Amino acid sequence: MLVLVAPGQGSQKPGLLTPWLELPGVTDRIAEWSAAIGMDLVHYGTEADADDIRDTAVAQPLLVAASLISADALLEGRDPARQFGAVAGHSVGELAAASIAGVLSPMDAMTLVRARGRAMAEAAAVTDTGMSAVMGGEQEAVTAHLKGLGLTAANINGAGQIVAAGTAEQLAALTADKPEKARVVPLKVAGAFHTEHMAPAVDVLAAAVEDAEVHDPTLPYISNLDGTAVAEGRQVVQRLVNQISASVRWDLCMEAFQQLGVTALIEVCPGGTLTGLAKRALPGVRTLALKTPDDLDAARELIAEHAQTA
Among this protein's residues, is 145 annotated catalytic? Predict the structure, then answer.
């Protein structure tokens, strides 16, 4: 059984769209999205530097655009439900996953991610907040330690990785007082995503989704909230809204893949982060990170080998 996954914020890299623009029709599609959301995706995906695309309002639309373009190139018009046994996205990657699963049109996904990115950037500017990765240690002990410091376990990613989020003061306390057998790595992000600090952005996205046309997913859509497969489109969208201020449980998503009998996993552009987690948490599962069009042939071979069990 083959799973398709879409990465979240922090996986963006300068020039990530450059090779994809060489494919037929991609430049026109990117231009259409750019006009609709009022953002020059070509510039940010080809010329902008790492600091420019770190901006939450920029990074999120850029990531979803890259994921959708690469997934479309991979599928070549084929029904994803006939190729994959499940689809999921990490944080903002859930919007790309929802579009791939047929819940949202690509244009609606781009419109919503633009609203999401702006709203989260504005919420992050209210208080000096941030995030730090906690590597190693026992999961229950780490989450208890974070709670004691007033921090939120914003991303529980599995494979020994938890991302803590909170105020700058709380994160400084974490650096000085690490959980047992763990190391702490500050992350270059603009705020405490997936915490109560993002509450204002929840209301913004809730209003934005009212104009979206929503359909039920055509294949199992695994939610970040609790790792369950969501079968109703409206429930998918409601979870997309609420997830802005709720913890990402990627560990439970990977457990769901395992229960479904996953044998291979493909991560759409800019792939790498989620395949890395899968290699550690899902031993024996084939993984492939779709970074450039040069990876398409290998990804299609993987689909041919594993799609029959989807």
Answer: no
Of 91, 132, 223, 245, which residue is the catalytic one?
91
Q: What is the pTM of this model?
A: 0.95
For the chain, what percent of residues have pLDDT higher than 70?
99
237-253 confidence digits (pLDDT tens): 999 999 999 999 999 99
| Tokens 């990785």 -> residue | 161
Which one is the CATH code of 129-186: 3.20.20.140, 3.40.50.450, 3.30.70.250, 3.90.960.10?
3.30.70.250
Task: Output the CA angle 20-3-90, nearest 5 degrees.
Answer: 70
Note if 194 is an active site residue: yes
Sheet with 221-222, side-by-side order of all strands: 229-230, 221-222, 86-89, 2-6, 264-267, 286-289
Q: Look at residue 304 in the predicted model and tell me its pLDDT.
A: 93
Element (H, E) at 102: none
Residue 309 binned pLDDT confidence (cut-offs 50, 70, 90): very low
Give the pLDDT of residue 310.
38
Among the listed residues 90, 194, 197, 306, the single catalytic one is 194
CATH class for the region spanning 2-124+196-309: alpha beta
